[in-house]
Amino acid sequence: MRFYYRYLQVLVRFLPIAIALLRDRRRFVLFGPPRSVPDSVNRERAERLTQTMLDLGPAFIKVGQVLSTRPDIVPPAYVESLSSLQDEVPEETGGDPFTVLEAELNEAIDLETVTPLAGGSLAYVYTAEYDGESIALKVRRPDLAAMIERDLRVIRRLLPLVTFFADERQQYSFRNAANDFEEIIRDELDFEREAAVMDEIGTNLADDDRVVVPDTYPTLCSKRIVAMEFVEGTKITDDDAFADVSIDETEMATLITRTYLRMGLVDGVFHADPHPGNLAVTDTGQLVIYDYGMSQRLTSQEQADITALYRTLVRRDVDGLVDALIALEVLDSTVDRVAVRRVLELVIETLEGRSEITWRAIITELFTMLHDFPFRIPPNVMLLVRVGTVGEGVCRSLDPEFDFLPATRSFLVDHGFIESELEALLEEFQEDVRKSAPVVAGLPARTDTVLRQLERGELVVRTDPLEPTATDLRLGYAVLSSAFVLAAAVLSFHDALYAAIAFGVAGVFLLVYVRR
């Protein structure tokens, strides 16, 4: 009974927004021409949708966060608004987390020292005393798992209704987004996994004293609790965050960018939720990263493919970008590469025509222009897109002039993922030589075969008769000159004298062509 009540509740909340969007496509929902609405109306609707996600609780907050990375599904105004979704819900949602502390840590810590600190969509954070030290306890809300499972059932039941009104391309996108969302939120509910990821990232970043990852207390951790070192810091976007520290806003923006690129491209395990509530600055100017529930591990192959994606985007390498998107399974291997290449060239031309290029603009333009090709965004790619868009937003809030792309290029060069411009040209030349060598090596054998066929009269060239013109004759000398240059190149493998003669004849025909 509760399931059906929840289903109707969700349906009623989303119905007005859904009807408005459908009427934009067809004025009378099922038929009629499309209608255009001003940007102000779209922004108002997007804010209403964002508030609805917040009101419906943790599962729908996560849905909104996933949709904020999917410009192929929702319009740009909605992407921007949904990107602001953070894990803030009413404290009573999902029950009192203190009951979990009483059940699991009653004998391990002094519950009288427990003090509430902050709340999120999935958990609540407390401070407590343990062995004479202050620690932080992230505690999952007790009734949350059942609520999430119920809402996942609601979302699965709503999906056929949503896809019925969507076009074929969006049907594919909605289905894979729903599957990926379930995988992501179930990972976030597993606090043992979160503690393990936190330890791994802390170990990876231990050599960088500018970044702080709180240590965990494994004996106190469980599926519902993450116990960690309590590290005080000022929220990174607070007005006074950089008032009395040795690092300024631009330096911090660069540090955030390079730290997240290192996690994803070098270490292979990354924190995927860099919103301002999860980033702080200590009184010594260090960056503190909190809340590792939304995180991801990459295989070595995924690391290589994602590195290739960044490299090709920075270098505007269209062919490499197609390869990277196929390798990451964003595009199917059977996709029409020529058509995709044309679309990607258009994306790059469009972006280069803008005065300002941001990561969000790149992703939005890329996925919007690929709408004619069935594609999916796997969870690892989706989380990396979120890291880029949310992280860039934080960096630009610190420094409005901060440019994500040069910072990314600098990181890739420093870590040897791409070369300097001169090295890149040399690499391209070497690659051309490498690809051409087998062809050049095989030319003598092929030439001998063609000459034998000519001697035996087996080679026939069929052409349609045309009336010769003065232009045709002039072009004929150019063709003959080119032919003798090729012959000289082939003969150079056999006899230098004949090669020199052929080259001389080519020069004669070239002079005649130029003179005429």
UniProtKB/TrEMBL annotation:
CDD domains assigned to the protein according to its UniProt record, in alphabetical order: ABC1_ADCK3-like (cd05121)
Keywords for this protein: Kinase, Membrane, Transferase, Transmembrane, Transmembrane helix
Pfam families: ABC1
Positions of transmembrane segments: 497-514
Residue ranges annotated for the Protein kinase domain, each copy included: 111-418
GO molecular function, one term: ATP binding
Similarity comment text for this entry: Belongs to the protein kinase superfamily. ADCK protein kinase family.
Name of the protein in question: AarF/ABC1/UbiB kinase family protein
